[in-house]
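Subject: Sanity check before I submit

Could someone independently write out the structure tokens for this chain? I want to compare against mine line by line before I put it in a report. The sequence has 260 residues.
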Amino acid sequence: MKITLFQDNLRMKVSIITVCYNNSETIESTIQSVISQNYSNIEYIIVDGLSTDDTLKITERYKNKITKIISEKDDGIYDAINKGILLATGDIIAILHADDFYTNENVISSIANEFNQKNVDAVYGDLQYVDRVNTNIVKRNWSSGEYLKDNFLNGWMPPHPSFFAKKECYDKFGVFNTTLKSAADYELMLRFLYKHNCSVTYIPQVLVKMRVGGKSNVSIMNRIKANREDKKAWELNGLHPGLLTFIRKPLSKIGQFFNR
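---
Independent answer below. Compare away.
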């Protein structure tokens, strides 16, 4: 599938969405990594879930550099992301969680250039898991590799914070499925790339750093629950996985701990 071709002289607007709830320890570095980008046409949206700590106070310090801030009750992280997507007016959607940050000021420029040059529907790169306190300590390296459709049958997926898609993809194929609690990101990428054949390209660079302790990585039990939801993601789309898809998916992460 090919979507709208952007003219070379048209600067694409990139909408970056950060959802947060009681993230006072990390939200500032997330914000700073966005507002320090050297790409000028950025729309930054923060969706807060009625934080009770200092998250909103910190966010307010940067209100002149944030396009929209909303704070209201939501039904979970994916519901909050969907709110941000519906508010977004950009050509490209980026999701940057409140525990994550871009590796340098060139990330969005690199992404926009890739969309322009390759005329694709989505772009993805690599991600590093880092220590929650000392972010210079790398815990895991998630190197995605080039995309082949059959990769999904082998348990492959790109890291969601390093996945950028055109707004038209969301408009045509839907937003995050909130019936899933931990695998909605996997389901969305499966839907976009595997089911609907959105065109995609890979940038072999670490674009995002994620502090350890994410929702689906906290415990073995959470990983088991996430694996069950992975199966549901295929069922929801009427797709048939491979015989070993759900065994290979968690096993594929083992190498990330040694590639540091």
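---
OP: Matches mine. For the report I'm noting this point. The mean pLDDT is 89.
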